[in-house]
Design a protein that fits this description.
The chain has about 300 residues and is an all-alpha fold. The protein has one domain. It contains 12 helices and no strands. It is globular and about 60 Å long.
Length: about 300
């Protein structure tokens, strides 16, 4: 009687897990598709703005400099990183629906998707959105002068400074990333972008004799150095904070569509399990040799040895 009850409860639990996994996959696919469409539209609209500014508007030095330095703003860098992440996410979602996640290309897409999100998208988005709106609320002329409203509509400003945070929040709720995918690579990417961007706006100051952001212009040099440390420190803090925050919403990993199909069709054959173990060992640098192969090697040695 007890065994029958346990079996029924186990089947109900598996059924609930499969249903949850499918729902999450549907929501992820819809979210990634919608977000990618919005980002693509905003990108095309921004390119159109740059190439359609009138001569009268270009006579304003602030607008002229904004158009000139458009590719160098950190906001645009981050928006590009988010667009790349959403593109990879959408491709992986399609592969998951097609049950092709065990292919080599799917593995690479999943790796770069997670590394870009954790190493670049999350820390840069959190820093940009928080710092922009804090400074904007104090004095908007220091980050987004009112004259910019002549060519940049209000909704565009929110797409690149507000909507980016919404993307990160929803992605955190829908996708479990309890731990870094590749800690070393993600930290290097975060630090490299931070140093590269510092070189960019310091080079602009020394060669063009102006700050890329007016907020630097009201600071002394020691204040600029402290602010620079704040930028780097906050980006690394946001990077390391994302994982405990993710674990608050994802206590366990949500099964993929492949795992759901395996539950329906039964466990894989022994040969397939060995292949999967080998495949996973390539993905993780901590696993150098599968336990099944170690056991086989030990068994062969024992059988061939003489007492």
């Amino acid at each position: 009687m007890c065994e029958v009850k346990i079996t029924v409860e186990d089947k109900n639990t598996r059924s609930n897990v499969r249903g949850c996994g499918l729902i999450i996959l549907v929501l992820r696919t819809l979210f990634h598709g919608l977000s990618w469409s919005i980002h693509s539209f905003v990108t095309l609209y921004g390119i159109r703005v740059v190439f359609t500014v009138s001569k009268e508007q270009m006579e304003n030095p602030m607008i002229s400099e904004m158009i000139k330095f458009t590719p160098l703003f950190l906001t645009n860098w981050n928006f590009l990183f988010q667009t790349c992440f959403l593109t990879l996410s959408l491709i992986y979602d399609v592969l998951e629906w097609l049950n092709k996640v065990d292919t080599n290309i799917a593995t690479k897409i999943q790796y770069y998707r997670d590394v870009i999100f954790s190493g670049l998208v999350v820390p840069l988005t959190c820093f940009i959105s928080s710092m922009f709106w804090i400074v904007f609320s104090i004095d908007r002329e220091l980050v987004f002068p009112e004259v910019y409203d002549q060519i940049v509509p209000w909704w565009f400003n929110h797409c690149v400074h507000t909507n980016i945070t919404i993307v990160v929040i929803i992605e955190t709720l829908l996708q479990a990333r309890r731990h870094p995918r590749d800690l070393k690579t993600e930290v290097i990417m975060n630090g490299t972008v931070g140093v590269a961007y510092a070189i960019v706006y310091y080079a602009i100051y020394f060669f063009a004799k102006r700050w890329l952001y007016a907020v630097f212009g009201i600071m002394t040099w020691w204040q600029v150095c402290l602010y620079q440390l704040l930028i780097w420190g906050s980006c690394f803090a946001f990077y390391f904070l994302q994982f405990p925050v993710n674990r608050l919403f994802h206590r366990e990993e949500v099964p993929s569509l492949r795992e759901i199909n395996e539950e329906k069709t039964g466990p894989p054959a022994e040969e397939d399990m060995d292949i999967d173990i080998l495949h996973d060992s390539k993905l993780s640098p901590l696993v150098e040799k599968s336990w099944s192969l170690k056991y086989r090697s030990m068994r062969d040695q024992m059988e061939n040895s003489r007492l």
